[in-house]
Specification:
Largest sheet: 8 strands, parallel, barrel
Structural class: alpha/beta
CATH architecture: Alpha-Beta Barrel
Bound molecules: 2-phosphoglycolic acid
Strand content: 5-15%
Helix content: 40-55%
Number of domains: 1
CATH class: Alpha Beta
CATH superfamily: Aldolase class I
Distance between the termini: 12 Å
Number of helices: 11
Strand order of the largest sheet: 1-2-3-4-5-6-7-8
Length: 254
C-alpha cells in the first residue's frame, strides 16, 4: 500500500531563520517515524536552502506556490527553474489564500502545466467557501475542479497530480471546527464522481485526495480512517514538532 502523504504548509512562518532551525531540529528527532510516510515540507522561500539541507532523507521540499513564467526578467517572482535548483518535489497550487489574492482557476491550470513540465508534483487545492443547506456548494466544487484541471491529459498529466480538498470555512481554526468524517467522505465521493465524468473511473480512483483545514492530533484519526483520504495538508499544527509527530503517528497506525 502507498505511504500516507503528509504535507506541511508553513505559510509565512516561522518568523526567523533561527526559529526555523529550532523547529527543524525538533522535527528531525522523529526522522525514523517520518520515513514511514511521504513527508513534504513547504516553508517560505527564504528558508528553502536550510530546510532542504536539514530534511535529509526523511522529507522532501515543497513550495507553497509556483510561477507559470519561464526564465526571464520578472521582479519579485520565483520561477520554476529556481524551485527545481533547490530540489523542490511538490508545489501547492491554488491554495485558497492565493486564490484570495486574485489567482483564478485559469492561472491555476497554467501553473499545473508548468509544474508537470518541470517534473514537480502539483498539489491542486479546491474547496468551497461556505456550506449551504441546499448543497449548492457541490456546484461550486464541481466548477472549481473542472476549471482548474481544464486541458489536462488523463494519461500523461492527471496520473502525476494530487488534489487537496480544503473547505475554506475549515481553514485556520481548531479540530472541533474542522469538517466531520461523514461530510468529508461525502465530498471525497463527489470529487471522484466529477473526476469520473471529466476523465474516467481509473483516473478518479488513482488521484490521491488529501484533506486540509484545521487538522490536529485530536481529529486526524477518524478523518483518515473513515473517509478514503490518502493524506493531509496541514497548516498551523505542522509548525509544532509535537503536533506534527502525533499526526504522523496517527497516520502510520491506520
Ligand atoms: P490549517 O491550514 O491546518 O491551519 O487549517 C491548512 C491550510 O491552509 O493549508
Amino acid at each position: 500500500m502507498a505511504k500516507p502523504i503528509l504535507v506541511a504548509n508553513w505559510k509565512n512562518h516561522p518568523n526567523s531563520l533561527s526559529e526555523t532551525m529550532v523547529l527543524l531540529r525538533e522535527i528531525a528527532k522523529s526522522a525514523k517515524l517520518y520515513k514511514k510516510l511521504s513527508l513534504f515540507v513547504a516553508p517560505p522561500f527564504t528558508y528553502f536552502e536550510s530546510v532542504s539541507e536539514r530534511l535529509g532523507n526523511f522529507g522532501q521540499l515543497a513550495s507553497q506556490n509556483i510561477s507559470s513564467l519561464s526564465p526571464g526578467n520578472y521582479t519579485g517572482q520565483v520561477t520554476p527553474d529556481i524551485l527545481k535548483s533547490f530540489g523542490t518535489k511538490l508545489s501547492i497550487i491554488g491554495h485558497s489564500e492565493r486564490r484570495g489574492f486574485g489567482e483564478t482557476s485559469e492561472h491555476i491550470a497554467k501553473k499545473i502545466k508548468t509544474a508537470l513540465h518541470c517534473s514537480i508534483i502539483p498539489l491542486v487545492c479546491i474547496g468551497e467557501m461556505s456550506r449551504d443547506p441546499d448543497g449548492e456548494y457541490f456546484e461550486f466544487l464541481r466548477d472549481e475542479l473542472k476549471s482548474s484541471l481544464a486541458g489536462l491529459n488523463p494519461k500523461t498529466d492527471i496520473s502525476k497530480l494530487m488534489l487537496a480538498y480544503e473547505p475554506v470555512w475549515a481553514i485556520g481554526k481548531h479540530a472541533q471546527d474542522a469538517i466531520t468524517p461523514a461530510n468529508l467522505s461525502q465530498s471525497v465521493i463527489f470529487i471522484k464522481k466529477v473526476l469520473t465524468d471529466m476523465f474516467n473511473r481509473v483516473v478518479a480512483e488513482h488521484v490521491p485526495i488529501l484533506y486540509g483545514g484545521s487538522v490536529e492530533p485530536a481529529n486526524i484519526g477518524p478523518l483518515f480512517s473513515e473517509t478514503g483520504i490518502k493524506g493531509f495538508l496541514v497548516g498551523h499544527a505542522s509548525l509544532n514538532a509535537k503536533s506534527l509527530k502525533a499526526i504522523a503517528e496517527s497516520l502510520i497506525s491506520k
